[in-house]
Every structure is written in structure tokens, then in C-alpha cells.
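Minutes, project check-in

Agenda point 3 was the complex the collaborators sent over. CS summarized: four entities, 668 residues total, and the question is how they sit relative to each other. Sequences were read into the notes so everyone works from the same version.
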Amino acid sequence: MGPAPRPTYSVIAKAAGVSEATVSRVLNGDESVHPDRAKRVHEAVDNLGYRKNRVASALASGRSGLIAVVIDDDVSVFSDPFWGTVTSGVSRILSENGLHTVLMVSPVGSVDGGVANYLKSGEVDGAIFFVLHSDALVNNLKKSGLPMVIAGTPHSSLDIPFVDTDNFGGAYAATKHLINQSCKKIAIITGDIGTTAAKQRLDGYLQAFRETGGVPAKGLICEGNYSLQSGMDHARQLLETHPDVDGIFACNDLMAAGAVTVLQDLGRVVPDDVKVVGFDDAVIAQTTRPALTTIRQDVVALGEAAGSLMIAQLNGEDVKPIITTTELIIRASA
Amino acid sequence: MGPAPRPTYSVIAKAAGVSEATVSRVLNGDESVHPDRAKRVHEAVDNLGYRKNRVASALASGRSGLIAVVIDDDVSVFSDPFWGTVTSGVSRILSENGLHTVLMVSPVGSVDGGVANYLKSGEVDGAIFFVLHSDALVNNLKKSGLPMVIAGTPHSSLDIPFVDTDNFGGAYAATKHLINQSCKKIAIITGDIGTTAAKQRLDGYLQAFRETGGVPAKGLICEGNYSLQSGMDHARQLLETHPDVDGIFACNDLMAAGAVTVLQDLGRVVPDDVKVVGFDDAVIAQTTRPALTTIRQDVVALGEAAGSLMIAQLNGEDVKPIITTTELIIRASA
DNA sequence: ACTACCCGCGAAACCGCTTTCACGAAGTCC
DNA sequence: GGACTTCGTGAAAGCGGTTTCGCGGGTAGT
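CS then shared the predicted structure for the full assembly.
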């Protein structure tokens, strides 16, 4: 009734008439075993329904086959579909390479919290970090020699491989689009400015703006935090301080949606009076009325890039940062 | 430069002047060690910065401290924030109990795919399943004796503990609310009817309907699939076949939002002409105009319930299914 | 024909921790 | 006071793989 006793190497070895060492070689793809004996081993494995005990294997070899995905839950961001999506991308790539994903959702603030402890405990072969506000932990872990990948651009220039969306380019394109639609007074509602992504998007906006020869009026730069509420608040405020604003670039779709509803509640017609561009191309971009013009980022690809960077690193290959491209999706709001 | 060599029991034992067995006892909270010696061990541990190798520990004890969270990705549902949220709930509870979450996002259709293999490999102490369309894998795994918890109601009556939202009650409340608002012709747009959650919500609707003494006209029951598109399609169709429909219960907010936009595009005023109620209380419920009246389910609580059920089970306690409550959130759409 | 290699393979050590077992000391019972 | 428990502890045997080492036989070089 209990768990059926699983066969071990010794059983397989006996059945195949070889030594345990040979079983190990065969099962690990060592080419140097004679094909006949390899075949006997494989047969024995199949017949007995053998499955390798990964824990024992991990202990002996020092490789666990586990990769940690660490998401900083300081801001309980995990309810954002972004994380789920990117994580599933990572997970898929890793499992295609025989690795498994250990998910850790926990505040990463401290350098010696539970997460840090776990990562140092040698149970994982590598870690992928979604860094938001601080590089401290990553930086600290670097000493340990643990292979790491950062999703998102690190704040300081650690020489750790990272993947990120082309935030700058996307924001530039968004702003440019507004300019091309002959908007004269273009505001930006930024994301949490403590994150590099938000900074980069702001930079993209500034760059596009600068190319027009002007400098954005101070009040046109609103520091949001990616939440629906902040989109609404800033839109309202914007309308007070700059009633003639005719373009808004919100740094994610959620804020854009918030801005649109406020604009409409206050009698503005989108896009006729004010044009709005979002960022992400989240589902909400399609359900908002008018549907949001936005910058699509390929989130799954981002996750996959993170996964493959990790794999390359484990294989000892040279790795370079990967920046995934964005795409302007034109809908009705701008 | 490489990873600093980590101390082992033998080092600690020597430093503390005790045997390795005693070190193990102390580190595993065995009460029977003399306090003085225990203290010496703890000091040695602190001084040397010792950290237990969990892999070795897992091999020797047969307990890995890992719990798999398996999400069926057949329908690439992971982009739905629901999954991220519930997973983070699970992860939090587990880590509070010294366990870690291994995330597996993969089609669970087959009984002997990679996931099944992994779960049988003994590397995890338990598994939490998000079952959607089939119980096959879970059912198969039951024989192995692996502790399991199902999130969502299983199709067949396996005697495996599960947690679920009160889908029936929520749907009942939603429909009842429409009835109380004196809607006469109330339609439902169901979720993917291959899932138990969708069935239960339909049942709740039917029950409320039945209590009015009537039976819903056939055309009022529309089989959707939780997607925005299906909400739009069914709303459009509904307006054709039943122009006098005055209430719609959509089984999630996404479909509700789709329905609302279509209704408006076709000249209906929500809620004056048609009232709409959604389910989930997702972010989109707040951004849709009018904001959606909906059924809130506490997704984090659901995840935490799943986690605690697993822990109880590992502790050998008796476990009963947990049904988390829902709440009617009244906004503008009904 | 003789030494020098190379190749395939088994014996055995080892990875770091857990747990059983047995032993000596100390306490209990009549 | 002798026999019986109880208690704290260390020695040692695993857990189930991986990997080093060296051996015997076949091939190559001279």
C-alpha cells in the first residue's frame, strides 16, 4: 500500500550483469560504454521502471538540477500577470533542459534572510532574480560563485548577465508616436522610479522629447508607481495643472487605463482631446475603451531569455545581456 | 575565488567537542541533548557560519522539504493573475514552515510525462495540483503514496484533500443580486464547462433561478470559456436571440468586461438597460466603465489554504476540504 | 617480439547528513 | 544492595548515486 520500493543501481546492475559504475555511466550519457552493455542497462531500466533518485544524484555530483527564481515580494507584485507569465517562460526553458524551477516569493531586502540562506545552502545550481529596488542580495551572493541571471536591469553595474525589455526604446517609440500624432503637450506618468525599468522608460520619453528641440515642462513628468490608482490620481492632477495636455504616456497599461477613465469622467474625449499610450500590452489594454495604444513587450520571451542565459552559463559559455525588443501596437487611444 | 568550502558536521563536531550524531540531534531540535552541549554546538555553528546541506539531509532522511506546485499549462492559463496570486500564497505558507515550492508549469495530460516522472522520483515531499480538465495524473499518483492537495474541486470523488472557492455560493449570490434588482431575463455566460469551477457556478445560477419558480430559457445559458472574446461573442449573440435580456452573469470579470463593451457598442446602457455581474474581482472589474459588480474570491487565502492543508497532511493530521468564502462586491454595473 | 598506450570497465571511496544500536552512568524499586 | 530502567551519547551503518583509480587486454610503434 505504501510507496512501492524503488529499484536502485544495485538492482539494475545485477539485472544487466554490469557494475553500478557502468550503470551510472550509461545513465549519464558517457559514450565510452560498449553499446551492447549500454543496451542491456537500458533494457533493465525499462523493465524495472527504474527512475533515478535525484537527491542522491545531487549529493554525489554536487549538482541539484534546481534553479531558483526569486521574486521580490516587497510590493506584492506577484498579482501582476507579468510575473506569472515570465516565470512560466523560465520554467518551460529550464525543464526542457532537465532543470527544475524553485519559486521563491519573498522580500529580498536582507542579505541574510531565508532566501539568502537557502541560496547559499547549495541546494540550487543557480538563481534567477527579478530585481526591483536593490541589488544588495545579488551583489552579496556573487562572492559565493553561484551562477546568477538578473531579469531586469541591475542598478549598479554588476558583471552578472541580465535580460531586460528594451524599456528605453519602447518608451521612445511611444512618445514619438504621440509626437507624430501632433500632440503638443505630452505628459508622462512614470512607474515606480526606484526601479530601473521606470527610469529607462523615463529616459526614452525624455530622449524623444529632446529631439523635438524642447524640454518637457516640469509638471508634465508625474511620478507614478504602476498602480491603477496612481494612474488615476496623476491624470486628475495633470488636468488641473495643465488643462491643455493633449498626450499622456503612461508607463504601464494599468496606469493608462486609470488615466483614461479619469479623463473621460472629467469630460475629455480620448483620443480626440487627449491621446494616451500605455506600456506592456496587457489584457487590460484591449478591454479599456477606447482600446489602448501601447508598447508590447514579449514577456514570455523575456522569461525564456532568462532561462537560456542561465543554461548557457551553467555550460560555461560566455553570456551577454539580452535585450528583448518591443513593438508599438496602435489601437484607438492614440 | 570559487565557492568557499563549507564546513560539515565533522568540523562542527570537532569544534564543539561532541560527536556528529549529537550535532545532528541539536540541529534537528532533539530535546534529549544536554543544554550545555547543545549550546556548544550552536556556538560552533555560529562561529563557523555553518549551513546545513539540505541535499545530504534529504538523502539521509528521505525528506526533501520540497513541495511541487503543478499548474496545467494546457491552456496557457498562467498569464491569468489568478495563478500568480494563488501560487504566491502557497509559497508563503510553505516557506513559513521550512518548505520550498517547486513550480511546474506543464501540460499534465499524460500520466507519464516529465511532471509525473519528477513527482515519482521522490524528490518532493508532496504536490499541490491545480486541476482543470482531468484528474488522471492525480489519480495515478495516488497509488504512489505521495501527499497531495488539489486546488479546485476534482472531477471525480478522489479522497484527496482539496481547497476551492465557494463557486456555487458565489454564483448563487450573483444571480440572486440580479433577481433582487428586478431583472426578469437573466442570462449566464459560463466559463470553460470542462472545469468543475464553471459547472459549480452554473449550478449556483440555476439554483437561484429555480427558487424564483422558473426555469431559465435555454438560450440564456451561454457556454463561454473565460476569455474576453467569448464574453463579447456571447453578449452579441444574446442580444440577437433575446433582445429583452436585462441581466447577465458572466462567470469571470474578463467576460463581463467583454460583455459590457459589446452591450455599449450596441446601444445598451449598463446598468439601466442590462445589468452585469462578474466573478473574481480582478483589477479589470475596477477599470471597466461602469465598474463591475462582481463576486470577490480571496485568491491568496485559497493558496494559503492549499499550503496549510499540505502541511497538516505532512504532519499526519486529518485533513478536510477547505472551501473559501466569496463576497458580493456591488459597484456600478448591477 | 617487447615496451608503450589507450580503452572499457569494476572496485571502492566518497558526498554530508540521519538514525539505529549499544554502552556506561545514573536513577528507581523492593 | 542487586536487578532493572532510563537517559545521554558516540560509533557506525546506511541513503543512492558519482567518480577516481587501476587493471587487463588489445593496438601501435620500433
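Noted in discussion: Residues 18-22, 25, 32-34, 37, 56, 58-62 of chain A lie near DNA strand C (CB under 10 Å from a C1').
Follow-up: revisit at the next meeting once the mutant set is ready.
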